[in-house]
Write a structure and sequence with these properties.
Elements: E1 4-8, H1 12-25, E2 30-34, H2 37-47, E3 51-57, H3 67-75, E4 81-85, H4 90-98, E5 103-106, H5 111-122, H6 137-146, H7 151-161, H8 166-173, H9 177-191, H10 196-207
Parallel strand pairs: 1-2, 1-3, 3-4, 4-5
């Protein structure tokens, strides 16, 4: 069985350069590349048994905050996921570490450094993280709670954090409003909150709290 390194990056030049470099350095591996969170999920469902490592762009056109990371962690339990990003603020890096990423790699680093980091991760080691503040207890607790959500519940929570109403969520997900309400009840219980407003306040720092003004 040939293992796969999956690259998820919507920047064509960056994604292609990384794909070619990883493929040349590790010819025994297959390199897959997709450009959206939805494509990554579909790829994971089809090839999950062969995926050895995911290199994930933090900012994707169809993902908010850490939603793509959380969803891939659900689909690929135990598979290391490394963030590859131009964003390096302490808040974002600390949250990524809390959510269990295997590495946080900078797009500004030489491609050779990124390729070497791939080898480090595949050997079961962890490249050094950028210097950041320690994760807060609240972030650790939220990560543990959100990991218990189902795929549908996570999508509802992301839509909720985005300010969408039950009717809009139902239409987007092809569900009845009653089913959306059932998902919300389960979300409130798992997050330890009592209502919609509390769920939004709890989730937004992780699903909507990254500064969209900083471009990848």
């Amino acid at each position: 069985m040939q293992w796969i390194v999956l690259i998820v990056d919507d920047h064509p030049l960056v994604g292609e350069a990384f794909e070619l470099s990883v493929g040349a350095a590790y010819p025994h591996l297959e390199v897959g590349r997709v450009t959206t969170a939805a494509e990554a999920e579909a790829y994971a469902r089809t090839n999950g048994a062969r995926i050895k490592l995911v290199l994930l762009d933090l900012m994707l056109p169809d993902a908010t905050g850490f939603s793509a990371l959380i969803r891939l962690q659900q689909l690929l339990p135990g598979v290391p996921i490394a963030i590859v990003s131009s964003r390096a603020d302490a808040h974002t890096v600390a949250l990524a570490r809390t959510f269990g990423v295997s590495a946080y790699l900078s797009k500004s680093a030489p491609v050779s450094s990124l390729v070497n980091a791939v080898g480090t991760i595949l050997r079961g080691e962890q490249p050094p993280f950028p210097e950041t503040a320690a994760p807060t207890p609240a972030a650790v607790d939220f990560q543990q709670r959100i990991s218990t959500l189902s795929a549908a519940q996570l999508r509802v929570l992301v839509a909720l954090a985005d300010g969408r109403l039950n009717k809009q969520i139902a239409g987007d997900m092809n569900l009845t409003e009653g089913t959306v309400k059932q998902h919300l009840s389960a979300i409130f219980r798992k997050l330890g909150v009592g209502n919609r407003s509390q769920a939004i306040l709890a989730a937004r720092p992780y699903l909507k709290g990254l500064d969209a003004g900083e471009a990848e």
